[in-house]
Amino acid sequence: MNLGATELIIIALVIFLLFGATRLPNAARSLGRSMRIFKSEMDEMKTDKDAKTQANAEIAGNQPAGPVNGETPEETRRRLEAQQQAQPQVQPNQQVEGNQYNPNTNGHSTNQ
To answer: Disordered: where is this region (predicted)?
Structure first.
């Protein structure tokens, strides 16, 4: 969709008539602030992503995920399984002793 100069002038005129001369500077100022906030958040997300990638690379170290020279596929599978078992396993439905929050009881504990 190509907008020519005449179309842009018509759009600007319609916006000027709808919002008036008093609201346009405030709207432009608000738009500028929003764009600046959006840009800073995007930069922050990129920085966070780069930091996570770097941290993951440091954690992983130089351990190859694939076969090491001279390893058979069976040895590779065993090595990878051993690495996975060495990492702590988190189970989502672990039972914890003591008072627990139950959202169905409006904050009252069922373990009394």
So the answer is: 42-112
